[in-house]
Amino acid sequence: xxxxxxxxxxxxxxxxxxxxxxxxxxxxxxxxxxxxxxxxxxxxxxxxxxxxxxxxxxxxxxxxxxxxxxxxxxxxxxxxxxxxxxxxxxxxxxxxxxxxxxxxxxxxxxxxxxxxxxxxxxxxxxxxxxxxxxxxxxxxxxxxxxxxxxxxxxxxxxxxxxxxxxxxxxxxxxxxxxxxxxxxxxxxxxxxxxxxxxxxxxxxxxxxxxxxxxxxxxxxxxxxxxxxxxxxxxxxxxxxxxxxxxxxxxxxxxxxxxxxxxxxxxxxxxxxxxxxxxxxxxxxxxxxxxxxxxxxxxxxxxxxxxx
Length: 307
Known about the structure:
Elements: H1 10-20, H2 28-37, H3 41-57, H4 70-102, E1 106-107, E2 114-117, E3 123-126, E4 131-135, E5 140-147, E6 149-153, E7 160-165, E8 168-172, E9 176-181, E10 186-192, E11 194-199, E12 202-207, E13 210-214, E14 223-224, E15 237-244, H5 245-254, E16 259-262, H6 265-268, E17 271-277, H7 281-292, E18 296-299, E19 303-306
Parallel strand pairs: 5-7, 16-19
Antiparallel strand pairs: 1-4, 2-3, 3-6, 4-5, 6-9, 7-8, 8-11, 9-10, 10-13, 11-12, 13-14, 15-17, 18-19
Helix pairs in contact: 1-3
């Protein structure tokens, strides 16, 4: 069940309607549902703002031009087309994580945590802004962590289980483990049993009480895991013990739907410890910034710039 009830987000719902109404097969019942949704003033305003922004990205209509300035107008058209593509790319970059979540079988919104039991008895605990796909039909059960973080309590039913994380595969031989996707790497923590990480031609067996990070190029050496704080996020806390400052800021910013941009890379590697409230990420960020003498600047509601 969700850890807390979220207020409707007109901007996010407007984006979902914007996508649905432009898909092939949009029928009359869907349009009627959209009209009913627009009866709420905040919803109608949010959709109108999105539509206006989209129209601003469209290239201007072609007009007849004198032949003597055709070459100059042609270059202008190319620049406008380039600006349009750049704007479209920026929009896709901003909303791609949201579209990934909406296209996944299981997902949570920003700031939401949810627990669910699968048909085989396995329990998934999804963190904020997380998404998974599940296929339990074959002799090997397949899970795919698209984004975010998940805590797995695996039911052993005689079948193997594999979890896809980026380019890596995790073969599960235990009952409790945690997987997370961060900005620059992925992470596995095993709380009971064992799990095998396979990445290209490399592999690493991870036992209970151990953690390992990996990316598309390599698997890092095994480290000892702090099992008392590894899953503290499930109770709405981020308990950091000698954790890189950049990772703490990334987690807190993610809980309010922002991507982190560190101006000083060395500051990101600074080690910090503390107990932060994930249900009040804004307050936690302000407190941490004051303690570390940092300045925070939000940009368009999508980025958090740290100086």
